[in-house]
Structure formats: C-alpha cells, structure tokens
Design goal:
This protein is of the alpha+beta class. It is built from 1 helix and 3 strands, in the order βαββ. It has one domain.
Length: 60
C-alpha cells in the first residue's frame, strides 16, 4: 500500500495522557502499517503526564 488507509496523513503526531488509551492509539497506528519516528516525548501539565509519539507511513 503506497498511501495510508482511510486518507490518513503520512505523518502523524499522536498526543495525549500517558495511559492505556494513548498506548492503544500508538499500537493501532503500528498495526495499520505506520512506523515509529523518533523517540517519544513526555511533559507534565500539572495534573498528569502527557505523551507524544510521531509515526510515519514507510512507503512515502
């Protein structure tokens, strides 16, 4: 597949609280065929840890 499914962008930055739901979103992107791009980033918003992970489509 040369392009991501469902008209998704080739680069995605997934962000959210560092919890099970965030991990599932990253796992779902990997299952679609995306690959990790760089290291994850973490920050603290005063209440919780926020995570970010970039993923890219490998064929583009």
């Amino acid at each position: 597949m040369k392009q991501p499914p469902d008209n998704l962008p080739v680069y995605r930055l997934l962000t959210g609280p560092d919890d099970d739901q965030f991990c599932r979103r990253v796992s779902e992107a990997l299952a679609l065929g995306y690959v990790l791009y760089g290291s994850p980033a973490l920050t603290f918003d005063g209440k919780r840890v926020i995570a970010a992970q970039a993923v890219v489509w490998p064929d583009v």
